[in-house]
Amino acid sequence: METQASTTQVSLAKGIDAAKLERELNAMWAEMSAPEGDDKAAGVVRACVLNLVVYAEGAEERAEVDDLLAEVVERHPCRAIVITAERGAVESRLEAFVSTRCQLSSRGAKRICGEQITIEAAGSAVDTASSAVAPLLVPDVPVFLWWKDIPHYEDKLFARLSGMADRVVIDSAFFNRPHEDLRRLAALLERERLRVSDLNWGRLTSWRALVAGFWDVADYRESLSRVAKVVIEYDPPDRSHADIAPKALLALGWMASSLGWEVSDEGTKFDDTRARFVLKDGDREVEALLVPTDDAAGRDGWLTSLTISTEAGDEFVVELQLEERHLRTGARLREACLTCERVLAYEARTEGQRLSAELDILSRDDVYERAVAAASRLLAALGA
What domains, with CATH codes, occur in the chain? Predict the structure, then answer.
């Protein structure tokens, strides 16, 4: 991916001049489209399949966003509007820069290009940045908001930008206060009915597919109809070691909501070593344990194993083999004295690839929303 950049600075007093930015972009496109030398077929195709509004804080985050967008635009040429904020700055500032992003192409072929508008906001100007975004959106294509920060649900900027978006992308792995933030997310989904993509939920896709696959085996279903215990082990979140990792809560929330289990206040407790839940499956009880492992570098908040035990004494396991980048799945059937195992390659995807995959989705993710709601009820039962 190559980037051609041009900048224009906009005074705070006048705000963002959308017309001036459009003229600047048009001039850049005209220059890029001109044939070069004897290559008369050279030039670019200006493409925009969606609007991607990005919110990030600080210079480091901006550099990371620029790198990630190189991956995203390769698959989704778009107009990216990147807001980088310095909320703690004393002096208010609002500046805008424009650039283009083009896919590399063979000689003589036209390049497919998207464009980027970067808005740098500081101090009190951060809250007004949303007024600059609306006139810059390309009409008749979807609007995605990637909130690359902990969602500030009472934040005016988040409220305004999410109101413009067809879908909001977050990453619950980076919640500073996982328990509180997950409960607030559940309330937001119920109250505002936002369409939300969670990159952390995407990281659970392989785990969910493998766990659900146990129910696809006819010989396992009778035993799995009477689950007695679920144990989920996870690496503690770096931002809050005392809290349960969001991925573990989402995994148990997904299982509970999919299987119709309801959390009971009786017997549910949380201490330094584990969280214990009692879940009601009709007139039966299912014990669920969320257990932190020793903290290990490079796996912040990851699941390390998920074990399902049934009343028949059978056991179904999915576990991470980090060194080999594999997930091992196994079933041990007591009465049949049978053990079945397989090892699958663990899909290691970059954040840019995960974000790009979410941009293919516009519909609501009802399964995710039910998992978040169930996770919130689990936390409420703990009093967390």
Answer: 2-165 (no CATH), 205-382 (3.30.360.10)
